[in-house]
Write a structure and sequence with these properties.
With 99 residues, the protein is α/β, with parallel strands linked by helices. It has 3 helices and 5 strands, in the order ββαβαβαβ. It starts with a strand and ends with a strand. Belongs to the anti-sigma-factor antagonist family.
Length: 99
């Protein structure tokens, strides 16, 4: 998996490839850095994300919760149909903000 972080009026996390048990520690490090910083608006761009495991879902849950505690926002954009299906099956689509 590749991770690209773009900073601006919002912090955008661009993911490509598979977010699974092997790659989730890399994303977790990036999320920790973002949460320790001043980011108020975080966007996960999943346009090139092809797979997400339970380890990846856990990271999204952590980011959603922590951003809410900071008074910030967390939004998912460009989510592919296969990933959206996982969000629906797991119930994540009911509490994540997906554009």
């Amino acid at each position: 998996m590749e991770i690209e972080i773009k900073h601006g009026t919002e912090t955008v996390i661009c993911l490509s490839g598979q977010l699974d048990t092997l790659s989730s520690p890399d994303l977790e490090k990036e999320i920790t850095n973002i949460l320790e910083g001043n980011a108020q608006n975080v966007v996960l761009d999943g346009g090139k994300l092809t797979y997400i495991s339970s380890a990846g879902l856990r990271l999204l849950l952590i980011l959603q919760k922590k951003m809410g505690q900071k008074g910030g926002t967390f939004v998912l954009r460009n989510i592919q149909d296969s990933i959206m299906e996982i969000f629906k099956i797991t119930g994540f689509s009911s509490f994540l903000t997906i554009e």
